[in-house]
Amino acid sequence: MEQLLQVFKEQFGQAADALFFAPGRVNLIGEHTDYNGGHVFPCALSVGTYAAARKRDDQKLRFYSMNFEDQGIIEADLGELVYEEAHDWANYPKGVLDVFKKAGWDVTSGLDIAFYGNIPNGAGLSSSASIELVTSVVLRELFALDIDQVEAVKLSQKAENEFVGVNCGIMDQFAIGLGKKDHALLLDCDTLEYKETPVKLSDHVLIIANTNKRRGLADSAYNERRSQCEQAVRELNQELEIGTLGELTKEQFEAHKHLIEDPIVQRRAKHAVYENRRTLEAYEKLTNGDIAGFGQLMNESHISLRDDYEVTGKELDALVEAAWNEGAVGARMTGAGFGGCTIQIVDRDQVDNFIERVGAAYEKGTGLSADFYVVEIGDGARKLEEVGQ
Ligand code: GLA
Fold this sequence. Notes:
globular, alpha+beta, six-stranded mixed beta sheet, Ribosomal Protein S5, domain 2, 13 strands, 41% helix, binds alpha-D-galactopyranose
């Protein structure tokens, strides 16, 4: 934080007004269910994006990131916010400014903002949603906007959907906006009702493992899955009347799945329905202290994502299998898939041993070296402190 304030001064020539933070997120279970009107069960991390910011007297916007120093200061104008390829990462804060303004929030002047993020790069732990949410807190605080956090979450998702052009669901922004230390959020993505759930794993810990495999082609495959699920809803509605797959029980799905003609589309829909039900069961298991039962559902989630939804790939499968072989209580991919991270529950006493053995097996199988992190569940996006002049 000290360094970020120092960098702010160096780059922008004046001190920042205040410091802000938004975490990354990891999803425990409930994958590819958010845009299907189902449930997700994510938590906010202790790592995330820091922002130092200051209001300006004119309409200029200046952005700087310590993670992309070679890109220098990126400038834009509050009166003319458009997506620009060359602005790269700065399109996220620009997008948030744009949607806030369009929604009628009084963002009255330009800003200088410097960012520093410690979420591992490209790992699928939502560094982009983290930048969006930290920007929304900057706007709320510096312009004294009376906006509630769920509204800020929705606008951040809108920035990603409409300004950046990535068709994501609401999970990442929600977890990052409303996360709570040592809790997971059971979120109903249809109603946005949620329950803060203590993550008590007794003598176990959560470990994130990064495949260090870049998520090539992920966006087009993601959009394809979304439209396959929409197609399934249309076909099911020859007899049913549903808005999303999240409305169906497993039994209802089984009784009507013959209406879905393409077997691939049928498997996609099956995942969405079963994963949603698994997430509700997992919530029960966790609240009842049944860690083994929770872990078993994580394993089933991975298998469904691998075989029915087909969003895992060789690296995620290798890492999860290694974790299963080395005694994880539960292990699965987390996030959109096609690379990125896995999440697992591991005996506290076994952590070092586990990391060593899983790392070795993964490297042997794929030639890649994985990174491991013991998860600390942190609070959601917030202002950190005023800065004395
Ligand atoms: C990405 C999206 C989320 C969600 C997950 C899959 O992280 O941003 O909205 O759909 O994939 O569960």
